[in-house]
Amino acid sequence: MRKSLIKHGNSHALLIDKAVLELLKIDPETTQLEVATDGNVLVITPIRDKKTQKELSDKLAKIDAKYGAAFKRLADR
Q1: What is the pTM of this model?
Q2: CATH number of 1-46: 1.25.40.10, 3.30.200.20, 2.10.260.10, 1.20.1560.10?
Q3: Is 58 in a helix, a strand, or coil?
């Protein structure tokens, strides 16, 4: 997905599509984001409370258990 920055007052902003916010379970009103860079890459990570992080980890583990082998085969192509 390619995005362009837009002018927002004296700054610039990156618009994030609603579908992406929903996929990452980011509530624009309450979820804080951590913004980091190594000088080449911009990384934006939602800051989750421990309960939410545990729920997300559990769901990812279920996905990995069910589809992990398929993901590995796809990655090896």
Answers
A1: 0.56
A2: 2.10.260.10
A3: helix
